[in-house]
Design a protein that fits this description.
heterotrimer; A mainly alpha (about 80); B alpha/beta (about 120); C mainly alpha (about 900); A: about 80 residues; mainly alpha; 3 helices; elongated; disordered C terminus; C: about 900 residues; Amino acid/polyamine transporter I; Heat Shock Protein 90; 36 helices; 7 strands; about 5% strand
Chain lengths: ~80, ~120, ~900
């Protein structure tokens, strides 16, 4: 098996990419929180029009954030292969 | 008719030539066309001498010769070796060697000599 | 619009999809797939998630239960927003292991367990049957919306729909046994259908929002009115259902067999998730937020008795918009069609790979081990198994539809399927994240969870068991699903913690969790297997051409020529993964054990791997590259050294042989000419002896011709006389003259005459010489009881011509295959050949001279030669020749000198 040693320090581009990749992990967590917590906590407030708008806005934000982050990440470079 | 000479030779035209020569001299002659089964043939026919080609399908003349010399019953059998590879690197144990192509007169002389010895 | 004309429209639509898929498949086969292989196609193909359930059921669901229907789309939305670290890992690992299905992934991760694969397949089939029934039901239900008393619904619509979809799935899903299990035609068809679905839904949504209602504000007001209306009692959100359904749909987008298929198996790389990560949720969001206006407006204006599942059709119909309704119908039909086709393909692969083939292997213990005497076409067997499975799956769906009578609401069927497949989720997630998860743990978890699901969800949904009694205030469905998943996870974790997994399993878990390519299992340092046996196996699965190409590439990457690579551990591991791409990991491992006698891995082997890994960690990447390069060079050197050693040994033998070949006829000539000199020889003897002399002189001439021919070709002095010829005529002539030359035995000649009529531009005499030589060899050396010669001709993709000439004899052993084209080589007894062993060397020189090649094809059940001709003879050969060593001219001189000198000694 070829396990490469994790590098200790990265160049600027690779460093930025690392942080961006970490940001992508945050999106589903935030999105899940927005989608799960309000309707479960206050179902009577989120069952009708307000809930629909809330979910639509939250989802649109999540899609926009994902799109922006994925665009910023660009094609994976060789340097970034052990990001998992 | 007893078998004086057993010829082990795969080339049909050479075998025919040798037979023709020996039969005219009055020798009884049999032929076997390959290396496999040659030893059994020798034991079965018990010839007075053997003319053996070196390059044979199945087992080579050298292998047959080695087996022959290792067998006490056959060790003394006179053997004339026919070689198409010149006279270098010949296997030990042959009484006489004729390189191909040979003169008919040489073949007759060698066979007579060996059969009279036997 | 009558049901009849709708049926006609759907038939035309399906025909269009057939044409499209066919064109895409052909383009892919011709290598023009690249322009279609775009992230957008991939994204659109993911929309197979939106089945007819979304199209009809979601509206019904929304009007009954309000926002809850959104959970089905929010789950995938959450999963895809984390695509970069979650799905990307999944796709990468799955592609690394050439996974063919979700069952294969789970089985591969947990030590290539055949049992686990069969189990996951079972869950997949159980869950999919109601789901497919739902699609058939929705199509016939949609048709019924158009029915009026004078235009009744055609009878047995669902049978025809099922048959048509099965035909589509079989035609495009089981066309060939691909190594990578991708179906370009199907993917393109789904992508187009995704566009149709979206267009139809957007059209009806826009019509409802702005055509019937007064814009979005009015729709929101209507939604708020639901809280006081009679139809709105299901609207308040139920927290535990909210959570459970989002969890289930998030799982479903990964583990549903059809989703796994488009998401993972059809993905050509993981990078396209960058686009799909936001574009697919956008697609889902658009579809799902259009559901709400349709649902509320439908509930407002349609009569109370109307079926909410059909609002999407009834709304435009009630406003007299027939064209819009037709578009909607086609959109719904699209979603049903893509769902059924992809499900059928995915499930049939699972059933064939994990049920039928292991069963067949068990029944036919010896079938694969033997040489390819009567080659069994495993590939066709696999494909037929899949076709059978497709019919079975769609048939089961239809049966379920008939038996359930189409009564239950669509949404309920969908959630039953989701919750069933979700039982695979704990094993999947734990398998990818936790190295300690073991096979026994996974089996216990999946079995436990599935049992609870069957008892508390599946059977009650069929009406066979009563709804489970849950503590007050807890939703029965959510409670049952959470219970099943909790038990599943608990069993998985507990049993894994107590377990000690097998070494092979630990290797796999390392590879899956760290996403590193699996190296060879270290246990097989000296495999007993012959490369030829593997080639035969591959040929039976993928067809000969593909197998040969794969092996040639592998040999090339090792720095070797020919078709037989060294069986390095790396090659064996790669080969096993390629096999796994066709038959699944468990079956591939079983096949390798069967054919190759590959033993299992031991714990000490594992420790060795660990040692190697830590050492490798110290090396840097450059060193790795350098050593690979060195290894390749070393392999090349070793091969040429072996060849040289063998050659030099053979050179001495050859000198003797040339001598023998010249002296033998000379001996006869001399002896018989001496007889002729005797005066008293009878006339008939004289004539016969002269004949013998004549024949022997001819034989000498032939040998000298061969030697001259070879030296002329080698020196590049031969003249090319090209012309256009019919290959069939050349083969006829070659067969006639080879048949005349060889004696005795009757050969059955198997040819495809029609395929032989190919024009070739070449030097006719030279090609004829090669054909005669190869056919004569086949006649000489084929020792089969019922000897036969097979001749296949075809155009190669580059416009050249390939002629395969094979016999059913013993063939040529692997060790000798590298030597047969060398001068001086003769493998068999010299006497039987009747030539000096120059024939194939001359053939090789001629083929190079003609710009083509001749090669030995191993693993064809006998000796087989492939003669390849270029589209036209190539120029510039002279240059190539200059660089080559030409020992032969000198050697000829040496031979002649030796013969002359030896003869002089007489």
């Amino acid at each position: 098996m070829r396990l490469r040693p994790p590098r200790l320090f990265l160049g600027r581009t690779a460093y930025r990419r690392r942080r961006l990749a970490e940001a992508t992990r945050l999106v589903p967590v935030l999105f899940a929180a927005l989608v799960l917590i309000p309707p479960i906590w206050l179902p009577q407030h989120f069952s009708y029009a307000r809930g629909a708008v809330w979910l639509a806005v939250a989802w649109a934000l999540a899609i926009a954030a994902t799109a922006a982050l994925h665009r910023a990440l660009g094609r994976p470079s060789a340097e970034d292969e052990d990001d998992a | 008719m007893s078998v004086d000479v057993l010829l082990i030779e795969d080339e049909p035209s050479i075998a025919e030539a040798v037979r023709f020569i020996l039969t005219r001299d009055g020798w009884g002659c049999e032929q076997w066309p390959e290396g496999t089964g040659a030893l059994e043939r020798i034991r079965a026919l018990a010839p007075r001498m053997l003319i053996l080609d070196l390059m044979l399908p199945g087992r080579s003349g050298a292998e047959i010769l080695a087996d022959l010399r290792a067998d006490p019953a056959l060790a003394a059998l006179p053997v004339l070796l026919l070689s198409a590879r010149g006279t270098a690197n010949l296997p030990p144990g042959a009484d006489r060697v004729l390189p191909k192509p040979f003169a008919n007169a040489d073949l007759r002389a060698v066979v007579r000599e060996l059969l009279e010895q036997a | 619009m009558t049901p009849e004309s709708l049926v006609a429209a759907s038939v035309a639509y399906v025909a269009l999809m057939f044409l499209l898929a066919h064109a895409a498949d052909r383009a892919a086969a011709a290598g023009r797939w690249r322009w279609m292989d775009r992230p957008v196609i991939y994204t659109l193909s993911l929309s197979v998630y939106c089945s007819a359930w979304t199209f009809y059921g979601a509206v019904g669901y929304a009007s009954r239960s309000g926002l809850e229907f959104l959970t089905i789309y929010l789950g995938p939305g959450i999963v895809f927003s984390g695509a970069w670290w979650g799905l990307r890992r999944l796709v990468r690992v799955a592609r690394m292991h050439r996974v063919t299905s979700i069952a294969d992934l789970i089985s591969s991760r947990f030590g290539k367990s055949a049992g686990l694969a069969a189990l996951v397949t079972l869950i997949g089939v159980m869950a999919a049957t109601p789901y497919i029934a739902l699609q058939l039901q929705s199509v016939s239900m949609a048709l019924s919306a158009f029915a009026t008393p004078e235009h009744a619904l055609p009878r047995n619509v669902s049978v025809w729909v099922a048959l048509g979809l099965a035909a589509f799935a079989i035609l495009f899903g089981t066309r060939n046994l691909a190594v990578d299990e991708r179906h370009h035609g199907v993917v393109i068809a789904i992508a187009v259908e995704a566009v149709v679905k979206l267009a139809a839904f957007v059209a009806v949504g826009v019509f409802v929002i702005w055509g019937i209602a007064d814009g979005p504000a009015d729709v929101l007001a209507r939604i708020d009115r639901m809280s006081v209306s009679a139809g709105g009692e299901g609207w308040p959100i139920n927290p535990e259902r909210w959570f459970t359904l989002i969890l289930l749909s998030g799982a479903a987008v990964m583990v549903l067999p059809r989703m796994f298929h488009v998401l993972v198996v059809e993905a050509s790389d993981e990078d396209r998730l960058r686009q799909a990560g936001w574009a697919f949720p956008a697609y889902l969001a658009l579809m799902s937020f259009l559901v709400l206006p349709i649902a509320v407006v439908g509930a407002d204006i349609l009569p109370k008795g109307a079926n909410p599942d059909l609002y999407v059709l009834d709304l435009p119909l009630s406003q007299g918009r027939e064209a819009l309704a037709t578009l909607v119908f086609l959109g719904g039909f699209s979603s049903a069609m893509s769902m059924v086709v992809v499900s059928a393909i995915a499930l049939s692969t699972m059933m064939a790979n994990h049920w039928l083939v292991p069963l067949w292997l068990r029944l036919r213990q010896a079938a694969l081990a033997g040489p390819a005497r009567a080659p069994e076409d495993l590939g066709t067997l696999m494909l037929n198994a899949r076709r059978l499975a497709i019919l079975a799956i769609i048939g089961a769906g239809w049966l379920y539809h008939r038996m359930s009578g189409g009564t239950s609401a669509l949404a309920a069927m969908g959630t039953v399927a989701f919750s069933g497949m979700a039982q695979v989720l704990p094993a999947l997630v734990a398998g990818l994240l936790w190295r300690g998860a073991t096979r026994r743990g996974a089996i216990a978890g999946v079995v436990g969870g599935t049992l609870i699901w069957t008892l508390l969800v599946f059977l009650p949904s069929l009406g066979l068991l009563a709804q489970p009694a849950m503590p007050a205030g807890i939703d029965p469905f959510a409670g049952a699903v959470l219970l099943a998943l909790a038990v599943n996870l608990l069993l998985l974790v507990l049993i894994s913690l107590m377990d000690f997994p097998e070494p092979a399993e630990r290797l796999q878990s390392l590879s899956f969790v760290h996403a590193v390519a699996p190296d060879a299992a270290p246990g097989d340092g000296a495999p007993a297997v012959q490369p030829e046996a593997l080639l035969t196996l591959a040929g039976r699965l993928w067809g000969n051409d593909h197998a040969l190409e794969t092996f040639r590439r592998a040999a090339e990457s090792q720095g070797k020529g020919g078709y037989l690579p060294d069986l390095t551990p790396r090659f064996l591991a790669d080969f096993e993964r390629l096999l796994a791409g066709t038959v699944g990991a468990a079956t591939a491992a079983a096949l390798m054990t069967r054919v190759g006698g590959r033993g299992g891995v031991t714990v000490s082997d594992l420790m060795e791997v660990a040692g190697e890994a830590s050492r490798a960690r110290e090396d840097n990447r450059r060193l790795e590259n350098t050593s690979a390069e060195l290894a390749r060079t070393a392999a090349m050197l070793r091969e040429s050294n072996e060849k040289l050693t063998a050659l030099s040994a053979q050179k001495d033998a050859f000198l003797g042989q040339i001598s023998h070949e010249l002296r033998t006829p000379m001996t006869s000539i001399r002896a018989f000419s001496e007889f002729l000199m005797e005066p008293d020889l009878p006339t008939e003897e004289r004539a016969r002896f002269a004949g013998i002399i004549h024949d022997e002189a001819g034989r000498m001439t032939r040998l000298l011709d061969d030697l001259l021919d070879l030296s002329v070709l080698e020196a590049g002095k031969a003249r090319l006389k090209p012309g256009v010829f019919n290959l069939h005529d050349l083969i006829e002539r070659a067969l006639a003259s080879a048949g005349a030359a060889a004696s005795g035995r009757d050969f059955a000649i198997r040819r495809n005459i029609a395929a032989e009529h190919l024009p070739v531009i070449t030097d006719q005499d030279r090609l004829l010489q090669v054909l005669i030589n190869v056919i004569t060899n086949a006649r000489k050396y084929c020792s089969a009881e019922a000897p036969q010669i097979r001749i296949d001709c075809r155009r190669s993709p580059d416009g050249g011509t390939e002629i395969d000439i094979a016999d059913n004899g013993p063939g040529i052993s692997a060790g000798n295959q590298a030597l047969i084209f060398e001068k001086f080589a003769r493998l068999n007894d010299p006497a039987r050949a009747g030539g000096a062993g120059l024939g194939l060397a001359i053939c090789k020189e001629i083929m190079e001279f003609l710009g083509g090649s001749i090669a030995y094809l191993p693993g064809q059940g006998g000796a087989c030669f492939r003669i390849s001709l270029p589209p036209r003879p190539r120029a510039g050969r002279k240059m190539m020749k200059m660089r080559r060593v030409k020992p032969f001219g000198n050697l000829c001189m040496a031979c002649c000198a030796k013969v002359v000198m030896d003869s002089r000694g007489l």
